[in-house]
Inverse folding.
């Protein structure tokens, strides 16, 4: 371990602001990108699921109509 | 059985057509030019008329104004042809696309680049540009404005099919313009200090050579994508 | 010779490959990054000239170099898509673009935060920073162009053209530090010379570069899978996949 104590580690020899700004911004951006990418997958799946449900409902509706057509 | 027309004939047909259309719509030529003049006159008004400061910023101001004016005038390169279907006709013709693209871009440069080259020295007087730098100014504009037309044409070709493509055009094209801007202003500033600037000019000329040979293919490919 | 690649032109096959590779990339990138960053932040010795602030290098250098490599990867995908008319290659390029843009932004921000204590200024218009900023603009332009087309196939082609036109910027960035003698320091690591950095600092840096590369791979795989699903949402294999995942 290069630093004497935890508070030394956080102080980073006086450059704390710059070091933690860099690491913080980098992590923030990369984690945001990861979260967005994973969420997109979930959203896509939800969209496909609801689209399938809609199509299923439409199909059943049409079937129902066909069965109830007046027999002339 | 009709004779196939020669490449030169294709090129000059397209060139003459574009020039004729522009002459009949003079606004297309004058508006970007007036924009160029107004933008340049805005700077002394905004920054103050101290000749020392104006001399320092003159090359940059003139070139940035030229860039923005080129951007403004690029819109009309393909838009009208796209709207009335003649662009698709050009894409369908048996002649190679790059010849017609050359014709259109050359017409664009004649109508917008050359007026800028002519008027820029007059405006440079307003900005107190160093005497020694005038040659550099004209030469960099002479070599650089065709590059602006060629690279800008790629951007227009990509965005011609998009609604409100104008804003996107600036985003796409300005990063690609930056090397030309840096070398051109570098040359003019070197000239103003009395230092040699042939190296800068050589690089701009290289950019021009590269653009002349490579961009027509990119423009053609982009046009095919946009008209699909 | 390339026959073994042919099945991967099918979206389903490529999706499966991406799903298989993803855990490997994700886990190894987390391990490599953890080791590299902890080592770099806490264990690497201090630089006598720059003090503790030099530790920013462990994020800055990987991000900056990999931003360029990512662009080349995207350009390769765009080239493949254009020459061989493979829609999956265009999907891959679309997947890579935001990753590259974020990396460039990280490089610029960490560079500015390092520049302030070192050079006394947050920003300077020297060759390396300017060309890196232009790279960010080109990335953003590609993403914007892609998003402005309704049809994804057209979007891929248009973005591909723009990507290939922008490739000229990469050698300019790479050699800008050599061509113009400016504030930014020269290359620290080169293939042939001895590195100008002591080993205790070099090893964590290399580990971080590896970790970042693996992370880029993992993120690209995630986004690539999303793109494939988005473009093939009507296909039965996608429907089955969604049904299976919902259980």
């Amino acid at each position: 371990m290069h630093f004497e104590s935890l508070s030394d580690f956080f102080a980073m020899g006086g450059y704390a602001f710059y070091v933690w700004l860099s690491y913080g911004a980098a992590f923030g951006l990369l984690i945001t990108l990861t979260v967005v990418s994973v969420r997109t997958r979930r959203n896509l799946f939800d969209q496909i699921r609801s689209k399938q449900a809609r199509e299923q409902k439409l199909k059943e509706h049409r079937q129902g109509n066909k069965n109830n057509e007046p027999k002339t | 059985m009709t004779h196939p027309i020669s490449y030169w004939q294709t090129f000059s047909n397209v060139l003459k057509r574009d020039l004729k259309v522009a002459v009949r719509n003079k606004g297309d030529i004058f508006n970007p030019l007036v924009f160029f003049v107004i933008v340049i006159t805005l700077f002394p008004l905004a920054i103050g008329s101290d000749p020392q400061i104006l001399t320092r910023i003159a090359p940059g101001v003139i070139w940035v104004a030229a860039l923005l004016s080129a951007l403004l005038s690029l819109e009309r390169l393909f838009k009208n042809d796209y709207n009335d279907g003649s662009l698709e006709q050009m894409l369908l013709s048996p002649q190679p696309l790059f010849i017609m693209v050359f014709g259109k871009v050359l017409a664009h440069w004649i109508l917008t680049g050359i007026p800028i080259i002519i008027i820029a020295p007059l405006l440079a007087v307003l900005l107190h540009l160093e005497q020694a730098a005038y040659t550099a100014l004209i030469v960099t504009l002479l070599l650089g404005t065709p590059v602006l037309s060629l690279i800008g044409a790629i951007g227009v070709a990509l965005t011609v099919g998009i609604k409100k493509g104008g804003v996107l055009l600036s985003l796409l094209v300005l990063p690609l313009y930056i090397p030309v801007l840096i070398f051109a202003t570098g040359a003019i500033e070197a000239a103003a200090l009395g230092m040699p600037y042939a190296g800068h000019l050589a690089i701009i000329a290289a950019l021009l050579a590269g653009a002349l040979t490579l961009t027509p293919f990119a423009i053609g490919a982009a046009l095919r994508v946009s008209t699909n | 010779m390339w026959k073994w690649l042919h099945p991967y032109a099918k979206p389903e096959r490529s999706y499966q490959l991406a799903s298989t590779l993803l855990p490997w990339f994700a886990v190894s990138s987390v391990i490599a990054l953890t080791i590299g960053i902890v080592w770099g932040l806490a264990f690497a010795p201090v630089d006598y000239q720059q003090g503790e602030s030099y530790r920013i290098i462990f994020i800055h250098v990987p991000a900056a170099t990999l931003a360029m490599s990512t662009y080349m990867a995207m350009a390769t995908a765009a080239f493949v898509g254009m020459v061989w008319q493979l829609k999956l290659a265009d999907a891959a390029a679309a997947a890579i673009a935001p990753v590259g843009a974020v990396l460039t932004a990280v490089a610029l921000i960490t560079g500015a935060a390092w520049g302030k204590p070192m050079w006394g200024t947050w920003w300077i218009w020297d060759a390396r920073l300017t060309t890196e900023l232009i790279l960010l603009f080109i990335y953003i332009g590609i993403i914007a162009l892609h998003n402005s087309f309704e049809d994804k196939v057209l979007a891929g082609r248009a973005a591909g053209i723009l990507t290939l036109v922008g490739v000229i910027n990469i050698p300019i960035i790479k050699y800008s530090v050599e061509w113009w003698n400016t504030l930014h320091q020269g290359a620290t690591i080169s293939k042939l010379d001895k590195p100008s950095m002591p080993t205790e600092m070099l090893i964590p840096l290399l580990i971080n570069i590896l970790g970042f590369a693996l992370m880029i791979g993992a993120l690209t795989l995630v986004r690539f899978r999303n793109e494939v699903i988005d473009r093939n949402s009507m296909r039965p294999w996608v429907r089955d996949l969604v049904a299976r995942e919902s259980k």
Q: What stands out?
A: The CA atoms of residues 7 and 99 of chain B lie 7 Å apart. Residues 7-227 of chain B form one domain. Chain B has a mean pLDDT of 91.
